[in-house]
Design brief:
This protein has 337 residues and is α/β, with parallel strands linked by helices. It has a domain of 175 residues: TIM Barrel, CATH 3.20.20. 33% of the residues lie in helices and 20% in strands. Strands 3-2-7-6-5-4 form a six-stranded parallel β-sheet. The protein has a three-stranded antiparallel β-sheet with strand order 1-8-9, with no helix packed on it. A three-stranded antiparallel β-sheet has the order 11-10-12, with no helix packed on it. Helix 8 links the parallel strand 4 and strand 5. Helix 6 packs across helix 7 and helix 8 packs parallel to helix 10. The longest helix is centred in the middle third of the chain and has 14 residues. The two termini are 49 Å apart. The model has no long low-confidence stretch (mean pLDDT 89).
Length: 337
């Protein structure tokens, strides 16, 4: 079979071809023994987080960054670090996790949002003059695209920021620093110096955007002086979260009931998770058991696990990416870093 890219097709995913070989062998054995129609319940859960992380959201690292950034905007710039086939999924996860926007054209389209971006160094290098490049951007781009000039290609960041402000005047929305680590120095001092100079010269309306290797530590350090953050690999390539997928119940056709079963080290049986709206404590109980209040603080609890698919069919309306994002951000208000 010839294919232009080393990616699985939709049919291969649906047909179960994207799997480990021991599952293929297991299926063969079960078919031979007449057990391939056995119904089971599986648990999927995280059993450890990266060092230093107290919590995570099923979307990626972006929720941590948003929690730190507060009212500062975060745009996901990381699709270039990923295989093109998975970038729309990464854009969606970044947006759900709290990013205010994404830069990917296809990813933004699929979540019904507008892509957000500035300009690359290539535009400036091809013009061989940053002012000409900034003016070309201003000439060609429609009015609704914010004029954010990249100000770190050749000269000192403060100098290029002033040059951009002088070149575009009130049309300039912001300036971006994407200085490589080899030339970066102390980014906090660079940003503070640029902000001071722009304000002193009457350009206090100009926003400052910082990108390039930005992570949660830099956001915490810079957020008092930076208006927007462009975050790439810290979201696209975060520390891994260990996941486990385990069989915990088997259906007994003769007795018409579920039989709890699991390997050692795992809790057998189907489960429900109740979350406290007050202290955010999660309590795991056997399926069918209800708890009236949080065992930790006595607050109101709600079940988290809901049925979305039954026998291969979607049985509940799926929320939009924006609805999921709003739900995530509401939860973040109750969490501490």
């Amino acid at each position: 079979m010839s294919r232009p890219l080393y990616i699985a097709t939709l049919d291969e995913i649906i047909d179960g071809k994207v799997t480990d070989v021991y599952y293929e062998r297991t299926l063969k054995i079960l078919k031979e023994k007449g057990l391939d129609k056995t119904k089971v319940i599986m648990d999927m859960h995280s059993y450890s987080l990266p060092k230093g992380y107290k919590w995570a959201i099923f979307a990626g690292l972006e929720e941590v960054l948003k929690k730190i950034a507060g009212d500062r905007k975060i745009v996901f710039f990381g699709i270039r670090a990923l295989h093109p086939a998975v970038t729309p999924a990464a854009d969606r996860a970044a947006f759900i996790g709290g990013c205010d926007a994404v830069s990917g054209v296809i990813g933004a389209k699929l979540i019904k949002e507008k892509p957000v971006g500035t300009m690359p160094h290539e535009l400036i290098l091809i013009h061989e003059n940053q002012v000409e490049a900034w003016k070309a951007f201003d000439d060609v781009m429609p009015p609704e695209v914010p004029r954010i000039c990249l100000c770190d290609t050749w000269y000192d960041e403060r100098i290029e920021a002033v040059m951009a402000a002088q070149a575009l005047g009130r049309r300039l929305y912001g300036i971006r620093f994407d200085t490589p680590s080899s030339r970066r120095g102390d980014m906090l001092k660079i940003v503070k110096e640029a902000r001071w100079t722009l304000d002193m010269l009457g350009y206090d309306y100009v926003k400052i955007v910082v990108s390039g290797g930005i992570d949660e530590e830099e956001i915490a350090e810079l957020k008092d002086y930076v208006d927007f953050f462009g975050v790439g690999t810290a979201i696209a390539c975060p520390p891994p979260v260990d996941f486990s997928f385990d069989l915990v119940a088997k259906y007994d056709e003769e007795r018409k009931t579920w039989k709890p079963i699991s390997k050692k080290g795992k809790l057998p049986g189907r489960k429900q998770v109740y979350r406290c709206a007050n202290c955010f404590e999660d309590t795991i109980v056997p399926w069918g058991k209800e708890i009236g209040k949080c065992p930790k603080c006595g607050g109101e609890v709600k079940p988290l696990l809901k049925l979305y698919m039954d026998n291969g069919k979607i049985v509940r309306e799926l929320p939009s990416a924006r609805e999921i994002r709003e739900y995530v951000l509401k939860q973040l208000e109750k969490l501490e870093l």
